[in-house]
What does this fold into?
Amino acid sequence: SSFSSSSAGTSSPSVAGAVSTGDLADARSADSTCGRCDQPCSLPRPEGCGHECGKVCHPPPCTECTVLVKERCHCGGLVLNFPCHQHRGLQRPDDPRLSCHNRCPQVMACGHKCTLVCHAGPCSTAETCRKKVTQRCPCRRLKKEFVCCEMKPQDKDLKCDDRCRAEQAEREAEAAQAQREAEEEEQARKQAELEQLAGNPHRKKRGKRKTRDVSEDDHSDRQKLWLAGAAVVLVLAVALAAWFSL
It folds into this structure.
């Protein structure tokens, strides 16, 4: 007979109660008389374990279940893996084994992250935040550093001083002067162009006059060629008339 039949008579459910003392006693007493059995172990599983033993029929107790069970850490940033027998022993929700040991990512009321390592329970408060905070005036010349929990409401509104205002006025005056100089330079350039056009009004007509002169020269050359050709024809005509008269 097998230990599975001696313990319950039928196969156990996936999650059962703890193994009873009577079942273990019956199984141990059957150890000396039970023959070889190749059936899977069907001893009752420990409370909270829904995994199979994984061995064939054997004397009790079963070995500890090492199937990995996932559990999210306190801060929710990581998923931790626990062997089943350890997972069943976790004391929720405050068990320190559920800490991932990283900085808690939760944000406090002041806008900075919690100062605690992954933890159970409430986060640290803004009244204990020691984060350094830098405040600047509107022109960003003045700078002051404060400890977050020691800041007062008026510290968040850093005003410009007289030097800030003087430097700002100087920068505005320099910008206005540069703008005026640029406008004057542009005006001078346009004036120079107008004066250049006014002092030489026929500059743009030279091209047309030159074109007209070239056209007249071409007409004269063609006329000369025509007269030369006519003279040659006349000479030839006279020569032919003289030859026929002989």
Helices lie at 3-7, 21-30, 84-87, 162-199, 206-244. DSSP finds five helices and four strands in the chain.
